[in-house]
Design brief:
Length: 460
């Protein structure tokens, strides 16, 4: 028997009491942001029953166990309803690993250092843009709202820095799976993103002076299958959170660059994929093209935050299970998060948006996105996203990002709830020997984030 000082009823009452008073005070036993700043970890902010799966389930599920249809009822409240249905009906399973308490293992090191250093220095200006409170200039690095009081602060931090590096390149493989478990398409390619402001690693810091009116440059391109080789899209984001990015694409069939309508962000990138530009990191559109951002729930959650890097696979390929052919879902490690915050937002800048709202879950400890569900225009559940992050460190194996191990996402699953289609995407080590995953490469802009780069990728 596991005896805890504070039981589930205590923490549930605490979260409900805060909600009834309309306040968001992260942490249960102590203020979370102050605890992290003082100790670098979260144990003193939460009771034991929120720090381990054993404590939460009173020993019914233990670290190392798999969550399956046989025991999922014990943790049903800790996951999106669609994930629960996939476990019950499609044979999905989740392996439980030890909960992470050291916050320096939950984000890139430099990002977390900047978050601690710059705490309390951010504000929204009269336009609704996040600025440095001292001089009104763009944000200077790290999470601007590590102690969030409003839902819009969570969304703003996520929008400002998706991958939490100054620059990131992900070699990706995407699998479009049919509802019957059969694969439809397999795509390979790359995703690049580079911040023009709030830089913590790349010079010049904290801004790129010539591009200070920009937020980021972002591109995605595809290498296979051959009929889509060279297809690419590039977004140039303005720092003004009210303005749509400029959107360019290289169309392989026509062998030229064209500019696309920038508000058409709810269409699949390629046939079969359950992915839109709007979906990127849960905040693929400018902050103020959505509204509401109301906090609607708080409580513990399950998510993949560690032990997700496939270090032993030649190209970091992840294994699969579930569905009719055993290939529908990634093998996934999850851990208990002591506190997640759910917010809800509605699209206001898209008159023809096929979604009526989205719900986003954030880890209260570092505000990283841990889940998303969108709803169609009738208000019915539409699409569901869940993923896995990790420090790329396993025993003696490490991928270094400067002085510290690389931190990033490893894989994610996008499920179309209404059709049953599933898109699986993973970050791999390299494609075509030259497109390698990693962070803060100063050559990334010229290689991937200009119109000339798109042409070069399209004709290579």
């Amino acid at each position: 028997m596991i005896i805890t000082r504070f039981g589930r009823d205590y923490t549930r009452r605490k979260f409900l009491a805060d909600a009834s008073r309309g306040v968001l005070a992260t942490g249960v036993l102590a203020p979370l942001a102050k605890t992290i700043a003082a100790t670098g970890e979260v144990s003193k902010a939460y009771p034991d029953e929120l720090l381990s799966i054993e404590g939460y389930t009173k020993g019914k599920i233990k670290t190392g166990d798999y969550i399956t249809s046989a025991n999922v009822e014990h943790v049903k409240a800790l996951m999106q309803p669609i994930t629960y249905q996939q476990i019950v009906k499609q044979g999905r399973k989740l392996k439980v690993v030890k909960s992470t308490t050291d916050v320096m293992r939950l984000s890139p090191w430099e990002y977390q250092e900047a978050t601690l250093k710059n705490a309390g220095k951010a504000k929204f200006d009269e336009k609704g843009n996040v600025v440095n409170a001292a001089d009104g200039q763009p944000w200077i690095g790290g999470n601007p709202f590590p102690d969030p009081k409003q839902g819009i602060e969570l969304a703003a931090a996520q929008t400002l820095s998706w991958g939490r590096h100054d620059a990131s390149f992900y070699a990706i493989t995407a699998y479009a799976m049919r509802a019957d478990g059969a694969p439809r398409f397999r795509y390979t390619g790359g995703w690049a993103e580079l911040s023009a402001v709030a830089r913590t690693t790349l010079d010049p810091k904290p801004y790129w002076p010539e591009q200070k009116d920009k937020l980021r440059f972002q591109s995605v391109f595809f290498l296979s299958p051959n009929n889509f080789r060279g297809t690419s899209f590039m977004n140039i984001w303005y720092y003004d959170h009210r303005k749509f990015p400029e959107l360019y694409g290289y169309v392989a069939d026509f062998k030229r660059i064209r500019q696309f309508p920038t508000d058409q962000r709810f269409e699949p990138l390629l046939p079969g994929l359950s992915l839109y530009l709007s979906d990127a990191w849960g905040t693929g559109d400018p902050l103020h093209t959505w509204s509401g951002y109301n906090i609607v729930n708080r409580g513990p959650w399950l998510c993949g935050l560690s032990e997700s890097w496939a270090a032993d696979a030649p190209n970091w390929e992840h294994t699969t299970h579930g569905g009719a052919q055993g290939k529908t879902f990634w093998d996934t490690n999850v851990e208990l998060i002591p506190e997640a915050i759910m917010i809800e937002a509605q699209p206001t800048g898209f008159p023809r948006a096929p979604v009526s709202k989205k719900q986003l879950w954030f880890d209260a400890r570092n505000q990283v996105l841990v889940g998303m569900v969108t709803y169609d225009r009738r208000g019915e559940p539409f699409r569901c996203f869940d993923g896995a992050y990790s420090l790329y460190e396993k025993g003696d194996q490490k991928v270094m990002d400067g002085k510290h191990p690389y931190w990033s996402w490893c894989h994610f699953t996008a499920s179309d709830i209404q059709t049953g289609d599933v898109t699986r995407v993973e970050q791999v080590k390299v494609h075509d020997t030259q497109h390698k995953s990693g962070a803060n490469d100063p050559t990334m802009y010229e290689r991937y984030l200009t119109q000339n780069a798109l042409r070069s990728l399209g004709t290579s």
